[in-house]
């Protein structure tokens, strides 16, 4: 039907060892303002290979997440999201060392499951992806520096 990839590189002022454990639905509650999830399956209670959790998508729709890869020694994690009737998303995150901390190479591969999903990818996702990624980078750096969540600014309007 239709697929599109969006990429982002984040720069963190902290080590991979500090950043990687926060790429977890449980830990994201500490640093992503508004993050909501429900754990469906995890042996450890945290992110791990084969972990499954859900998040609200809006209008009563739910997104199911599956952790297809989780390699802490390689600082790599991959999630697959399915929002029924709309799209799937493969999210891969690779952390690499840098002179000032680490970088995250983040890739979101959207595949439409319907015409509405295609329209959403072409409009909403394309319009907001980089803005959302900037918040993510800033929020994670803020949390690691202060131990506190960076609260999103209210939208104008």
Order of strands, widest sheet: 1-7-6-5-4-3-2
What fraction of residues sit in β-strands? 35-45%
pLDDT < 50 stretches: none
Helical content (DSSP H or I, runs of 4+): 25-40%
The counted number of beta strands is 7
Largest sheet, if any? 7 strands, antiparallel
Write down the Rg. 16 Å
Distance between the termini: 35 Å
Number of helical segments with 4 or more residues: 3
3D architecture notes:
This protein has 157 residues and is an alpha+beta fold. It has helices spanning 16-19, 25-31, 115-146; strands spanning 3-12, 38-41, 52-58, 61-71, 76-83, 87-98, 101-112. The chain has a 7-stranded antiparallel beta sheet with strand order 1-7-6-5-4-3-2, with helices on one face. A hairpin with a 2-residue loop joins strand 3 (52-58) and strand 4 (61-71). The termini are far apart.
Topology:
Elements: E1 3-12, H1 16-19, H2 25-31, E2 38-41, E3 52-58, E4 61-71, E5 76-83, E6 87-98, E7 101-112, H3 115-146
Antiparallel strand pairs: 1-7, 2-3, 3-4, 4-5, 5-6, 6-7
How do you describe this structure in short?
This protein has 157 residues and is α+β, with helices and mostly antiparallel strands. Helices cover 27% and strands 41% of the residues. The relative contact order is 0.23.
Question: What would the keywords be for this entry?
Answer:
157 residues; alpha+beta; 7-stranded antiparallel sheet
């Amino acid at each position: 039907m239709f697929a599109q990839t969006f990429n982002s590189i984040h720069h963190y002022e902290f080590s991979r060892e500090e950043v990687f454990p926060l790429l977890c639905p449980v830990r994201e509650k500490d640093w992503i303002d508004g993050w909501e999830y429900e754990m469906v399956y995890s042996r450890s209670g945290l992110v791990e290979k084969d972990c499954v959790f859900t998040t609200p998508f809006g209008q009563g729709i739910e997104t199911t997440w599956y952790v297809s890869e989780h390699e802490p020694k390689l600082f790599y994690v991959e999630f697959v999201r399915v929002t029924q009737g709309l799209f799937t998303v493969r999210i891969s995150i690779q952390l690499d060392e840098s002179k000032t901390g680490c970088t995250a190479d983040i890739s979101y591969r959207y595949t439409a499951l319907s015409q509405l999903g295609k329209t959403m990818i072409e409009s909403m996702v394309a319009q907001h992806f980089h803005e959302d990624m900037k918040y993510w980078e800033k929020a994670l750096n803020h949390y690691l520096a202060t131990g506190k969540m960076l609260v999103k600014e209210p939208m104008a309007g």
